[in-house]
Amino acid sequence: MHEIGTLENVAWGLCFPLQVALLCLILARRHYLHYPAFTVYVAGSIAQGISQFEFYSHWGYSTETSRIAAWTVQGVVTLLRCVAVLEVCRHVFAGYRGIWSLIWRVLLFSVPLVIILTLASSTSRLDTRIFYADRAASLAISMVIVAVVLFARFYQVEALEPTRSIAIGFFLFSCFTLINNTVLETLWSSYGPMWTFLGTCAFIASLLVWGWALRNAPVVVESPQLIPADVYQHLAPEVNRRLSALNDRLRRINRPKDPRS
After folding, report:
1. 6-218+228-247 to CATH, choices 1.20.120, 1.10.10, 1.20.1070, 3.40.50
2. CB 199 within 8 A of CB 177
3. What are the angstrom distances between the C-alpha of 121 and each of 76, 127, 130, 132, 241?
4. Domain map (residue ranges) of the chain
5. How far apart are CA 19 and CA 15, in angstroms?
6. How does pLDDT run across 218-249, given as a tens digit for each residue?
7. What pTM does this model have?
8. Quick one: average pLDDT of 140-146?
9. What is the end-to-end Cα distance of the chain in Å, rounded?
10. What's the pLDDT tens digit per position in 176-224?
């Protein structure tokens, strides 16, 4: 690994044990029961680090073979990140099935569409295509989290911990990945080592946010429930009326029609 700079080695050496510690925390406190996609994403990021070490040790850090192999694994991890973010959104609106059915259909259509359009407009090189897809996915994830937060705030739907911190970690990492990849595209040759170091540092920051939230979260995390009607009407009757009307309308739209009618 002599071709990798000292800063990158230090960052990787700190990141890997934090990833393992986070996975152990998830398994020990049984958070995988409520966040299976997030658990798979963390495990996938660990597998990514191990595979990259093997690629670079076997083929070298700067060879085309190792670069394509590393970016292929990155494509898989990016897909796992998108699924984990979708899971976070589901937890936020777990008590409102009609609204959630609308949100996941929009996300399932819009996020792959952004990535496919990016792939279609990029070059024919596999690693470059995955690079642009990773940047597009980071942009889509950032926008999705902002949209979900604004939607939840408008209808006064509270995101409980650790769901809130998991969303914050994904948002921070996705925003930084978007900026970091954009700078790399402009300063490809001179920014390469710094791109790796800063990207790893950003992921370490997200790992710390996730670890702190999961460490303080109870072992059993209950899904948010609808407030009883009498309490809700006393606290916020207008908000309850708008939210219930929207939820019922969406449920009727998504309800399968009787074939006999």
Report:
1. 1.20.1070
2. yes
3. 20, 14, 12, 9, 45
4. 6-218+228-247
5. 6
6. 764 455 555 555 554 555 566 666 777 777 77
7. 0.79
8. 89
9. 68
10. 999 998 888 887 667 777 888 899 999 999 999 999 999 988 764 455 5
